[in-house]
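Possible regression after last week's pipeline update?

I re-ran a chain I had predicted before the update to compare outputs. Posting the input and the new output here so someone can diff against the archived version. Not blocking, just want to make sure nothing changed silently.
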Amino acid sequence: MGISHHGRTERLDLADPSLREWTCRVVHVDPERGIVLDRSAFYPGGGGQPPDHGVLLWQGVQTRIVGTHKGDDLYLIPAEGDPVPPVGVEVRGAIEDERRFTLMRTHSGLHVLCGVVFRDFGALVTGGNMEPGEARMDFNLPQPPEGFKGLLEEAVNKELATDRRVSVRVLPRDEALAIPDIVRTQTNLIPPDEQEVRIVDIEGLDVQADGGTHVASIGQVGRIQVVKVESKGKQNRRVRIRLVS
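New output (post-update):
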């Protein structure tokens, strides 16, 4: 699929995560799977980050977009009962801003959490998931220190206050995998046929392969609360967080 396209759709969401409105054209409609656009800023979901919601506006009509289906093409799922634009028509897409920006803050907050846990405790990620404003991440951390929950919350918020810049670049696969510790998960999740790897860099803290949307600097995350630390077997600890500002 590559980094810039998914099937027939140009991925505007990865090129510019601040983009909220754009014009595009419908290139295919499948009654079962949804609508395919030539250009889309809808993040389709993946890597634990849920898909965007929003609307398509065309000829005085509104079609609400409530999800995605990823296959050979990137399908946008319309709300049940909404009219569907025909192939060839020009539409204006619009992303639900509050949901997208909250997910960007949440995702970047998870990367700060990951960077702190790796730096201070040497633990890799074994799983994770997020919803707008709250998330969980699992680490291979058999023996967390006493007071781990409070120590972790303090360390993460100290990092967030530094407002480190978040940058994104795309590298050839071999060059990306040569970066030390570029894969922060216990299992390498980069598909073997991907020849380019998208890198998200929180400067001075965390560098890893990632396909999601992020804020421009980590001060935009605000503060986080470590809600709970749970045991998930002898080797794993689950850390639950939420945004508090």
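Follow-up from reviewer: compared with the archived run. The chain has a mean pLDDT of 94. Marking as no regression found.
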